[in-house]
Design goal:
mainly alpha, Tetracycline Repressor, domain 2, 9 helices, elongated, transcription cis-regulatory region binding, Transcriptional regulator, TetR family
Length: 190
Amino acid sequence: MGEATVRPLRADAERSVRAILEAAVRVLAEDPGASMDAIAAAAGVARTTVHRRFANRQALIEALASTAARQLADAVDDGRPDTAPPLVAMHRITANVLQVKGAWAFALELTPEPGSEAAALQQDIDRRCVAVLERARAEGLIDAGADLDWVRRVYYALLGETLRGDADGDPDALAARIVDTLLRGAGPRA
């Protein structure tokens, strides 16, 4: 037997999948136990279309996690983490991530299956975050003795708290606050 080739979806099928995923993220954010029927209704497609695209609820959840992780990876890429000055990259990535996390919050809170595309993307995002922090440390923006994995975790916590409390704020202003808090803390300014 020859290898099976994966054919890309037709444009209309791609639109259906995108509509299902976008509806699923909205519906499941409001009701994590929502049925596939409720997701189909919100997407404006037949229940059979959802089941044709996603064999079961777990397949839909995994697709949500992967799609959200790809969106997040694209947001990081757009910030030019390897080439932009570290402070610029940190600000732009933060603003981008706030927008993605605001739109895909439910899916990004899912714990990715070990070995899944979403898990691999999250590991790469973590690695790239630490790389930007290393560049920031090299420029004297972060203390030379700082544990960068801890700094990354604090940064993620600041993102999470911002989304819980200020999700509707201006992403650039929120990004400035997050980066400033990360790099300078909450102490008095000179």
